[in-house]
Give the backbone structure.
Amino acid sequence: LCGKKNNSPFSSFCLQVYFGRWLIEGSPYVVLIDVGFTAWSLDSWKSELWELCDIGVPWFDREANDAVLFGFLTAWLLGEYAAQSEEPPHIVAHFHEWLAGLGLVLCRHRQLPIATIFTTHATLLGRYLCAGNVDFYNNLAEFNVDKEAGDRQIYHRYCLERAAAHCAHVFTTVSQITAIEAEHLLKRKPDIVTPNGLNVKKFSAVHEFQNLHAQSKNRIQEFVRGHFYGHLDFNLDKCLFLFIAGRYEFSNKGADIFLEALARLNYLLRVNHSDVTVIAFFIMPARTNNFNVETLKGQAVRKQLWDTAQTVKERFGKKLYESLLVGQLPDVSKMLDKEDFTIMKRAIFATQRQCQPPVCTHNMLEDSSDPILNCVRRIGLFNSSADRVKIIFHPEFLSSTSPLLPMDYEEFVRGCHLGVFPSYYEPWGYTPGTTRAH
């Protein structure tokens, strides 16, 4: 696309865009802007940003550099659309988060005929403060925001976010707690709170989702059979699957509270001699170098046992069929011969295990300092036979192409019984909402 009119902000400027449909419900039109196509303009645009707003973006912050490119390109595209429309258009531009905020600031600076909305789902400074284990909510009114942003080397990002919030015609947040946070940290009270919504009709087919739950639960059970081979001394039909998922922020996302609660739950189940087993999954990406060999072996053993059972079943079925053909009831004691028992004994021998089932499914690069693993060591939940609570730490997001647990996140959620999100800082609150709907 290129500017065609002399009154365009960039009359001789070109950019590369992709146009199509977004593959979601409603199939809305989508314009994708290629920021890499105009990366050569980065230095001049950063200079212009400094001259206009006194905001300097350091060269090493690639994310902020992309935000600058995207902001200028968005403002250009909106300006071109307004300038080339035959009749004065009614344009509302809705910008989300600080990464898109510069486009809004430039639209206002260039006095484009556009109504602007800025929505923040969580403030940038709030995320950083809570990740640093600060007593956030009790000190909201006390923070020196400029100093705190500077100390964390995000002052330029904070300035972009704050400028967008103040330049917007309408400023919104997605929850009341975020509105209070924004008022103190961004220094503007939101005009309106727009809570996240769910399409309830999409989740109204109860019987269908019960069937999907059963199917996905069976796939999780198959994984559990392999992971706990040799120690499968609990009833899978009396097993509850719990999970926590998200960015690996140990305290911020509540993994610490979840583990402490699991330790207490394990104690209560043991002293009450409960026959219920709880398996808690931690789906949080961390630095690894590959799958754990013992974990992969477990799935291989499970498959081998399944193949053995199918082989014996076919041999048994053939003998049963031949007996029935001649009009005789089979002698069950003679239906399995010595070879069948040899095959089964070899398969059983393969399930012998000298170690406990692993807690982590991958080889961690920083095993000795990993917060989840260190907490597991402290509370002593090592997947022993005596424990009624088992822990599986999967330090990678789920994928249907995984050789270990081939399930997408949505399928996995459907198969579990409970998602646990005891987050300290969760201003958006979208993940628990969608999980509950599933």
User: Anything to note?
Assistant: The mean pLDDT is 89. The CA atoms of residues 155 and 161 lie 10 Å apart. The chain has 14 helices and twelve strands. The two ends are 42 Å apart (CA to CA).
